[in-house]
Design a protein that fits this description.
Order of helices and strands of chain B: HHHHHHHHHHHHHHHHHHHH
Radius of gyration of chain A: 17 Å
Distance between the termini of chain B: 63 Å
Number of strands of chain B: 0
Oligomer: heterodimer
Largest sheet of chain B: none
Helix content of chain A: 55-70%
Shape of chain B: elongated
Structural class of chain B: mainly alpha
Shape of chain A: globular
Number of helices of chain B: 20
């Protein structure tokens, strides 16, 4: 059981940032086959790599890479990583300023694969370009339940204060998942304008997962 | 300043939310916010039936680092759950308030060795001299880990009344305890420790010897103990190095022959330290030796010797 989950984590990590000594399957194949060109082709590559990874492990890997290494790719410490893997990891771990990847990533917020959605949210949140922010806000407003949820997560990763007002509106979304993601994102953005609304969610939301996330956000905000 | 409504709402969630996960997260958030106004909400939760929640609340009280949290945390030292007690000890060690000394001294007599060890740690963090007597007693604890932690704490407190009990601990059967006692005596830097440390320089355990040599250099002695001079020819190069440093601190010319012998040491770093120490000796006998060191094969040794000679004239 333990070793299985370990392997899944490593697999997800490989798919996300291609940082592993045992990168097998899609990550390595795609990384080797696809020539690296514009940002959108790298986005496609990353998304293809992430596809099929267990969702829970995917979330865990995103988080553990963030926490443990303070970033996505420590691929320089992996001796047998290929040049393509290094490029992909480097791309995924720094701020992206070219908006070329935005259409691919924002479409991937609605992907049928949960790991792809999560990875797309993570990367889209990192694109430092007004077009990325516009895409996230648009999906937050007009997407289906799942897409709104992922857009809120992307905005949380982006930590953009411009997103506070729209996220506050989504704190009273019909879908509990969207409310939860919005509470999380507001906790990440740490803007005091959100305190009052989060206090209300904590005392009034019918869903305990949302209340819990609001408590977390209030604790994280200072 | 955190919004007071956030604190009171989190406090209400901690007390009354139907879901345990929400209560746990509310306790965490109150700890993160680090606002003293949270204490009044956290304190009643110390009576909650859920041990994990009590543990979280204890942690949160420690995060706030306010003296008003000391009294409720001291009560949590009697909790029936050992993890809650351990968390309370840790929190009190982090708050570092002297009011925690008396209750922690009680815990130092707990039946659980891990708990006694944690209490010794916390008392060392608080650094109050009122803990010295209790910690000195803990130097005779049945559990070596407790004795070692007590020695550490006495080294942190740095009070001279700990010298005699620590010197007695130099005869402890456990080498790690002796090593820590030696360290503590080096921190306290009191000359009454010299005789005991001189014995420790001949300890059977290498690490104890190394540290004892260091500690003797820390104490402000006018004369280098014979054991320290002998340590200049110890078989262990780290002991020799530490001894060369230590006699350089003490500046006792009696060490000159021993230092001169070290100029033939195969280890260049030891020769450098020896030359430096000789430069500190205000004694004509060091002069010739330093002149000889000008011909050393190591350029840094030669430079150090030239410097030392330059300082004298």
């Amino acid at each position: 059981m333990h070793s299985k989950s370990m392997r899944c984590t490593v697999g997800a990590a490989a798919a996300l940032a291609v940082v592993t000594t045992v990168a097998t399957g899609p990550a390595r194949v795609v990384a080797t086959v696809a020539p690296m060109q514009g940002d959108d082709s790298r986005a496609v590559q990353l998304i293809t790599s992430a596809r099929g990874t267990d969702a829970a492990m995917c979330a865990l890997a995103v988080r553990s890479l963030e926490n443990r290494f303070g970033g996505w790719g420590r691929v320089e410490h992996v001796p047998d990583a290929t040049v393509e893997e290094r490029n992909l990891a480097a791309w995924a771990s720094r701020d992206i300023t070219d908006p070329g990847a935005v259409p691919v990533l924002s479409a991937a917020l609605s992907d049928r694969d949960p790991c792809v959605r999560r990875v797309a949210a993570r990367v889209l949140g990192r694109v430092k370009h007004p077009r990325a922010l516009a895409a996230m806000l648009d999906r937050l407003r007009r997407g289906d339940d799942q897409t709104r949820q992922m857009a809120a997560i992307a905005l949380g990763y982006a930590e953009k204060r411009d997103a506070v007002e729209p996220l506050l509106r989504n704190l009273v979304d019909d879908a509990a998942g969207v409310r939860m993601a919005s509470a999380w994102a507001l906790g990440e953005i740490e803007d005091p304008r959100a305190t009052e609304a989060l206090v209300r969610v904590l005392s009034e939301d019918p869903d305990p997962r949302v209340r819990r996330q609001a408590a977390w956000a209030l604790g994280n905000m200072n | 300043m955190e919004d007071p409504r956030a604190i009171s709402t989190l406090g209400r969630a901690l007390r009354g939310d139907d879901e345990r996960e929400v209560r746990l997260m509310a306790a965490w958030a109150l700890g993160e916010i680090e606002d003293s106004r949270a204490i009044e909400f956290l304190t009643p939760a110390l009576n909650d039936r859920d041990a994990q929640l009590r543990r979280r609340v204890v942690w949160a009280l420690g995060e706030i680092e306010d003296s008003r949290a000391v009294e409720p945390l001291a009560r949590a030292l009697d909790d029936r759950d050992v993890e809650v007690r351990r968390a309370a000890i840790r929190a009190l060690g982090e708050i570092e308030h002297p009011n925690a000394v008396a209750p922690l001294l009680e815990v130092l007599r707990d039946s659980d060795g891990e708990i006694r060890k944690a209490a010794a740690w916390a008392l060392g963090e608080i650094e109050s001299s009122r803990a010295v007597t209790g910690l000195a007693t803990a130097l005779e604890d049945d559990d070596a880990a407790v004795r070692r932690q007590a020695a550490w704490a006495l080294g942190e407190i740095e009070h001279s009344s700990a010298v005699e009990p620590l010197v007695r601990a130099l005869r402890d059967g456990d080498a790690k305890v002796r090593e820590m006692a030696v360290w503590a005596l080096g921190e306290i830097e009191h000359p009454r420790a010299a005789d005991g440390l001189a014995v420790a320089v001949r300890d059977g355990d290498l690490r104890v010897r190394r540290k004892a040599v260091w500690a003797l250099g820390e104490i402000n002695l006018r004369r280098a103990p014979r054991a320290l001079i002998e340590a200049l020819s110890d078989e262990d190069h780290l002991v020799r190095r530490a001894a060369a440093r230590a006699v350089g601190e003490i500046e006792d010319p009696a060490a000159v022959p021993g230092l001169a012998a070290l100029l033939r040491d195969e280890n260049a770093e030891i020769r450098r330290i020896a030359v430096h120490a000789l430069g500190e000796m205000h004694d004509p006998s060091a002069y010739e030796v330093l002149v000889e060191a000008l011909r050393d094969e190591d350029p840094i040794v030669r430079r150090e010797a030239a410097r030392a000679l330059g300082r004298r004239h």
